[in-house]
UniProtKB/TrEMBL annotation:
UniProt name for this protein: DUF4386 domain-containing protein
Keyword tags: Membrane, Transmembrane, Transmembrane helix
Transmembrane annotation, as ranges: 12-30, 57-75, 82-104, 137-157, 164-182, 188-205
Length: 234
């Protein structure tokens, strides 16, 4: 199976869509800040092992979500092609920036061990409010992930690959998480998003090779498909 490029891409894409949001859900479940004080300076002191584990899980969840966003572009090769490539690229950039922001966690842990939580928060705010940090790493890039994924999924729905409830659930889940305090509610919100996004991964894994290859626009001049490429190199 993995000697065939089409099957390899199908299995990899489906796996990414399942694993990436699942890692995010596991991260919020084991995060000490979910069930107590959500400030990293405090939650690290409550349980240093789980605090480091959740931070690493978030980091890899966001990196893999960037790849998952790109993987979704395959099912948009015949409809909403330009829309998919623009939104998909911005969404991937957003997740990469979210991943980079996870390096803030050890800084806040270090500050929390040497200062009061209030002092640690004040020092961190001064660091994060530097213009280079705000516009280089935060704004508007991180919102490309939070808002970009529901929009990208809307394109996937319009392309006919999924039902309407998938982009709706993700839009409600991610959108609500922006206004609801980080805590137990985040588990339900991100868990729902993981189910919705994961359903796309399950569908991809259940597709046959022929179904996967059918998303290549074979009738478009100049487009290369796995089969046409094999014929030219045989």
């Amino acid at each position: 199976m993995f000697k065939d490029s089409a099957d390899f891409r199908r299995v990899t894409s489906g796996t990414l869509l399942i694993v990436a949001p699942l890692l995010q859900t596991i991260a919020v479940i084991i995060d000490p800040g979910t069930w107590g004080d959500d400030r990293e300076a405090v939650s690290y002191g409550d349980n240093p092992v789980l605090a480091q584990a959740q931070s690493a899980l978030y980091h890899w969840a966001y990196l893999l979500m960037a790849l998952a966003a790109i993987a979704l572009l395959h099912v948009m090769r015949r409809r909403a092609v330009v829309f998919g490539h623009v939104v998909g690229s911005l969404t991937a950039l957003g997740y990469i920036n979210l991943s980079g922001l996870l390096m803030i966690d050890p800084v806040e842990w270090w500050l929390g061990r040497r200062n009061s939580p209030e002092q640690a928060a004040e020092i961190l705010d001064e660091m994060l409010n530097l213009p280079g940090v705000v516009f280089g790493f935060q704004m508007p890039w991180i919102f490309f992930a939070i808002l970009g994924m529901p929009v990208l999924l809307a394109g996937v729905w319009r392309a006919g690959f999924t039902h309407w409830w998938v982009p709706l659930v993700v839009a409600v889940g991610y959108g609500t998480s922006l206004v609801v305090p980080y805590g137990p509610a985040s588990v339900a919100l991100w868990g729902a998003c993981a189910v919705a996004i994961g359903s796309l991964g399950v569908r991809m894994l259940r597709m046959s090779r022929a179904e996967w290859v059918s998303h290549y626009p074979t009738d478009a001049p100049g487009r290369t498909t796995p089969d046409s490429y094999a014929n030219t190199t045989a």
